[in-house]
Amino acid sequence: MHHPSLRIHGALAAGLLAASGAAGAADWADNAIGYRYGTRFAEPYNPQDISKNIVNFTHSSGYKYGTNFLNVDLLMSDSKDDNAQEAYITYRHTLDIGKIVGRDLSFGPARGVGLTLGFDWNTKNDNSYASKKRMWVVGPTLMMDVPGFLNISLLALFESNQPKGVSSRYSYDTHPMLNLAWGIPLGSSGFAFEGYMNYIASKGKNEFGGPTAPELNIDAQVMYDVGSTMGMGKNTLRLGLEYQYWRNKFGNPHEVPGSLAKTPMVRVEYHF
C-alpha cells in the first residue's frame, strides 16, 4: 500500500509533466541571467553577517492555458559560511481555470482564477546543516487586475529534508503558505517594482525533534531599464536594488542566532 503523500507527489509530478508538455508552444517567453550581491545574509545558528555572490537563470513563459516560471540560483558564500556553494531551484506552473473552461472568471479586483503547482529543490555543501530540501506545492491562485502582474496563492507545502547527521529523509507536517508574487511597471519611467512575499505556517517538529515557527520572507526590488537608454531594446539590461527581510528563516524560532536576515543587495539582469 502506497503512503498518501506518495500519491500526492505522484499526482503533482504527472500534472507538472502534462503542463510542461502543453506549454511547448509558448505565446511569449522571457529568459534572463542575473547577478546579485549582498554582505548581510544570515544562516540559522550562525551569528555572523555573511557575504554572498548569487548568479541566477530565470525563465518565464505563457501559453494558451497558463504560465511557467523557473528560477535557478547558484549561491556562493564567503568564509563565514564555510565558503559554501548552494543550488536552489524553484518551479511554478499556474493554470488559468477560466481559459481551460472557456469562461470569464474575473470578479472585483481579480482578473482570473488559477491553480498553481510546482516544486523547490536545493543542495548546499556547508560543513554544518548541508540542506537537501525537496518540496512540492499546490493550491489556488488569484490573478489580480494590475499593470504587469500580481498573483496571490494559498499553497499546501509537502516538504522534506535530509541534512547532515540525519540517516533518512525526514518529512515535515504538511503546512500552508500564503504567497504573493508581483512585477509592476511604474508607468513609463523605466522603473519596475518586483518581488515576492511568503508567509509560511509552522511545519511541526523539525528533523531533530525541535519546534518550528511561522516564517516570513519578503524579497522586493526596484529595477531600472538601463538597456533602453543604451539602444539595447526595452528591458534587455536592468539594474536595481533589492532588499530581503526573512524572519524565522527555514522555520527556526526567533531565539536561534541567524534566524533573522535583513539583507540589502545590488542586482543586474540581462534578458534574452
Automatic annotation (TrEMBL):
Q: Which InterPro entries match?
A: Channel_Tsx-like_sf (IPR036777)
Q: Which UniProt keywords apply?
A: Signal
The lineage's top-level taxon is Bacteria
May I ask which residue range the UniProt record assigns to the signal sequence?
Answer: 1-25
Keyword rRNA processing belongs to the record:
no
Keyword Signal set for record: yes
One GO term describing the cellular component: cell outer membrane
The protein's name is Outer envelope protein
